[in-house]
Amino acid sequence: MKNLIKKLLVATAAASIVASAATAGDTPKRGGTLITALGNTPRVLNPAVQSGIVTGFPGAQLFASPLRYDEDWTPQPYLAKSWDVSEDGLTVTLNLVENAKFHDGAPITSEDIAFSVDIIKAHHPFKSMFAPVQSVDTPDAHTAVLNLSQPHPALMLAMSGQLMSIIPKHIYGDGQDPKNHPRNNVDLVGSGPFKLVEFKQGEHVILERFDDFFIEGRPYLDKIVMRIIKDPQARVIGLENGEIHLSGFESQPRNINRLKKADHLTATPEGYGAIGPLDWLAFNTKEGPTSNVKVRQAIAHAVDKNFILKAIMFDTAVEANTGIHPDSPFYNGNVETYPLDLDKANALLDEAGFPKDSDGIRFGLTIDFGWPGVKPQVEYVRAALKKVGIDVTVRTSADFPTWAKKMGTMDFQMSWDTVFNWGDPVIGVHRTYLTSNIAKGVWSNTQGYSNSKVDEILDTASKEKDPEKRKALYAEFQQIVAGDVPIYFTNTLPYHTVYNNKVGNPPLGIWGTSSPIDMTYLK
Amino acid sequence: MALLYAIATRIMYAGILLLAVIILNFGMMHLAPGDVADSISQSMGGADEEVLNEIRATYGLDRPFIVQLGSYIGKVLRFDLGYSFFYTQPVSQLILQKLPATLLLVLTAQFLALIVGVFLGVYSAQRPNGLSSHFVSFFALFGYSAPVFWSGLLLLIGFSLHIQWFPVAGMRDVTIEGNFLEEAIDIIRHMVLPVITLASIFLALYSRLSRATMMEVLGSDYIRTAKSKGLTDREIIYKHALKNSLSPVITLAGLQFSAVVSGAILVESVFSWPGLGTLAFESIIARDTPTILGILFFSALVVIVGNLLTDLTLRLVDPRVRTNG
What we know:
Chain A is an alpha+beta fold. Chain A contains 15 helices and 20 strands. Chain B has a two-stranded antiparallel ribbon.
């Protein structure tokens, strides 16, 4: 009891400190131009037909979605002021805000919601997001009812961030191919807090405050300039000399540690929970020595995660033990983690029937990688497996499509891979493990992994309405996969958002920069 | 008449060459495993197989090689460079958007390198074994052999970070909305570091070449005659020797025309200069065949036209070329 009171007191004290900090000197200010950096040119600015982190940043400013999420993975109203999921989970009703307008002044109605769902269903790369949505009813201008073929809890996250951008029917409904629509990049009419001023391929995206935005008083910023700077060193210098206020997805450990030292900058790994970027070592479970689970377990025991975290990531990334990002509420780190143990690795390889020959070699394996940045990890795996008698040959791919082709057709033995969760596990996690998704291109189930129990759990979890039961299903799934090791999970990507301390309320929610920054301001 | 004939032959060769450029590049792009659908998939964080196949069908990538090649050549003959799969824009529009920035960068760097290079070459040719001559040689070779991504970065660290004189990337500061003069000054400020980086490569070529030809010319009989006439050193060098030592330098400058694309790729990448080099680099990474082919076609065209112009300029400068055809 005493303890409880103490805790309460501490909590109240902490809360009042937070509250006073929020009032004293930290009140949002209107105006100003935020200069940010993009590491690549967005292909298309319309997130309804183009996913990805580069489109995400401008996309989420230009287009609003029905929901947004806070830091605790709780849905918040956005374009939908309230929503209701029926008892049987088969209808989801969205009650839209009444004063929402597109950038050309036309009202945002339920017709636009129905239209956007149609376009996303037909053209968005992630089919699983809206596959169970059969139809959208529009009983009145501000009510949209999504009819589902089965309960679909993933829909909540799929209606947030950049995943469900509401696009105007009166612009994109003109019969032209939405993927190549001329107004995806110019004269764009969006629904979000900022409107497009200019997009120059390879140069910049310039956004301007939309004065008729449906949330009173927001956004705070007058203008956002997104400078496209591909060279990470140039971005670092720009952040250091104050030319750039904010940059997301900085991923080079040395740069991050250098930026952390600057007094006027903050570098944080917050804001990547929903995108959920993971690094891992993938195995071909269909062919060759890696089709034997003992071989995979032995390799896992021989590769030291700590080495990767300390010597390659310089403590900028954290350990990941499963295919779900540690920041996700579904993460279950309580699984077999394969700590470094060379004796055990050797014993497992002996058991698997691969004795050492006179030169101390058991067998050879190849390892692939898709981009130059992960070469150190690949070289480390080669050196580490040498110690247990596995002779690894590194196969370098000329570019991404070359590697993607090898992965998509399972023409590999081991590969270093980076995969994102994209919100709900149904969207970005299931694809890696389902038997029905084997070898369907890069980032499908390229391991050839097939476990009927896993298929069953994932199918049940995709329909489970009760969050606690769903969590338990995913916990079990993570344990089974950790035991089967189709993939040896190592670490999260060291993505960091770096911002000048002049920036108030930087986007550090679960969607990070792929969410509206209508609350960000310049001090 | 001989001139017209020479030009007509050149144009015929150029046509054959351009066709070969297209077929060779198209074939090479086709031989590489994977395609633009994979790189679009990368930009989207993965895509369902259905979507990948739809992308391939939309852009005709599922048709046989020979059909794709035939339709591309047909388009080029109608002066249509096709549609970029990755940037969803017509290729010719993309290239024309990027061309001014590259021309500004490359021509300024070339001009600077030519003037300074020739001056340094002439200067060091007068005292080939002097200390300053060795210094010029060292400086030029250093600029030539230092990789531009390194020298560019050093300049950035020096003049953007430690002494904050110049901006770190891009061609202009979009927050500046001023009159023409202010915008011009802004662009010049952005140009300084990339121009110096790029010019340092060419500088070595021009200074070494003009030094060598100048030394040769200075040893010839007519210079001795000029000296014995009692002309000053300055008059000898700038009135007599320079003109005769220039023609190899002009030829070299013409050949460097190809650098409009190739030489600028790295410099443009380091400084995020929004030009053709950056576009070429990005479209190769993205496996965007129409854009790559468009740029290669365009640069082949530039090289051919450049060579033609060099030839004509030489005819003006050097009468010997005129008579020999």
